[in-house]
Amino acid sequence: MLLAEPQPTPADFHFHIGQIPIRVTGWFWPAAGLFGWGLAQSLAGDDTRTLLVYLLVWVLVVFCSILIHELGHALAFAACGQSSRIVLYHFGGLAVPIGMPAPALRTPSRRLVVSAAGPCAQLCLGIAVTATVMTLGFQVPVPGFMSSLPVVGTWLEKFSMTGDPIPSMLGRLMVYHLLFVNFAWAFLNLLPVLPLDGGQIVLEGLKAFGVSAADQIASLFGLLIAGIVAVWAYQHQETYLMFLFGVLCVGCYQRLAASGFRG
After folding, report:
1. Secondary structure of 22-54 in the HEC alphabet?
2. If exposure means fewest CB atoms within 10 Å of the residue's CB, which of 134, 161, 186, 214 is most exposed?
3. Does the pLDDT of residue 25 top 80, yes or no?
4. Torsion angle defined by CA atoms of residues 232, 235, 240 and 242, in that order, rounded to the nearest 10 degrees
5. What is the mean pLDDT of residues 209-234?
6. Mean pLDDT of 202-211
7. Within 13 A of 255's CA, how many CA atoms are on the CB side?
8. Radius of gyration for the alpha carbons in the chain, expressed in angstroms and rounded
9. Is the dihedral of CA 18, 12, 93, 115 positive or negative?
10. For residue 8, what is the DSSP state?
11. DSSP structure string for 113-172
């Protein structure tokens, strides 16, 4: 499956953060660049050098943001006594347990916390960036989608125009990307679609309440939500989003079929 961990290749980049091994596959970089190409090109116009600089800012933001997300999972694993490693690849990232499962992870509520730790880490990063910009007296370059959020959007719009603009275009762009990736992608990942974190949270929550058909219910719910998002993405010409949720939709259907579900 496309969302499974890819096999190691000589193009992979390896490093450690503390005791956590991290592998960045060779395809991570071009995939991240391709995803941000349209915006960078629209801002840079025909200036190739500026385009490459803007693209580099985007790729660095994506790298740091996904790494923070996976570190949230890895640290939650560690709190449960489970070692893990991180893989960044063309569809995002994975925190993969190492060795035998820790006894603490037999509890659904602990697994739920592990699933929630990734998006929570991203949201905390987005909040920290917003607070830092405001504390320094600068305007917050709010991504358009955030203005439509209830309560949060109104609050951000109120403060987005206070203070002085961030003096550097690259600085404004970096903050904008950081807020977009760490809020929009975190919310997207919290959709109740397996194997996204939101789907895992629903699955483990159902198990924690003793629901015997937890996997079937979570898969069926994920199938419906993934289908709706894929259709919306198609209608709005969001090709990457359409493809991703199309794959997730198929995955949820396969889980349902494997469980013997009959609609």
Report:
1. EEECCCHHHHHHHHHHHHHHHHHCCCHHHHHHH
2. 161
3. yes
4. 50
5. 92
6. 93
7. 23
8. 20
9. negative
10. P
11. HHHHHHHHHHHHHHHHHHHHHHHTTB-----HHHHTSTTHHHHHHHHHTSSBPPS-HHHH
Min mean pLDDT across 8-12, 158-162, 189-193 is at 158-162
Residue 2 pLDDT > 50, yes or no? no
Q: Which amino acid is at 110?
A: R
- For 93, the 3-state DSSP assignment is strand
Phi-psi region of 92 (alpha: psi -120 to 50; beta: other; left: phi over 0): left
Length of the chain measured in residues: 263
Owner of token pair 């990232």: 93
Q: Given the structure tokens 């949201």, which residue do they identify? A: 123
Q: Which residue is it, tokens 């439509």?
A: 148
pLDDT computed for residue 146 by the predictor:
67
- Which amino acid is residue 229, in one-letter code? V
The rounded percent of the chain whose pLDDT value lies above 70 is 92
Q: Which residues of 2-25 are buried (b: 16+ CB within 10 A; e: fewer)?
A: eeeebeeeeebeeeeeeebbbbbb
Beta bridge partners of 95: 86
